[in-house]
Amino acid sequence: MLGLPQDLKDAIRHRGLKGAHALALVTVSAKALGLSEKEAMKERVKATDQVLKKNLTVPETRELIKQIKAKYSKVEKTESKKVKTVIQKVRELSSIQMADVGFEQLQELRSLLAQKLAEIDQVVSETETE
Please, are residues 72 and 34 in contact by the beta-carbon 8 Å criterion? Predict the structure, then answer.
């Protein structure tokens, strides 16, 4: 409990916040929300006020925290191993290697790459509008 932020310590001492609630509320942090310390503290204080005003149980407090975190979470896309492999393989294609490839195969590669570039452009434009 000694490591709790001051706002939670004060709520325990002066407002009757229970330790279990404080331990749940401490997870409303700058790192978890992707905010500055000051902004995260404002969110935590608002959540603490709700917990005390509504006399929430610990599970209800955790649900409230989950909703707060969901409000700030950015869906992070992970790196795809398949895409990474394709990028590496495309980089390895040199003009010397392609000089030894038949015309039809080069046309097929060009067509496929053009199609995939169009798909990538579509995904990128959708991501930018989110």
Answer: yes
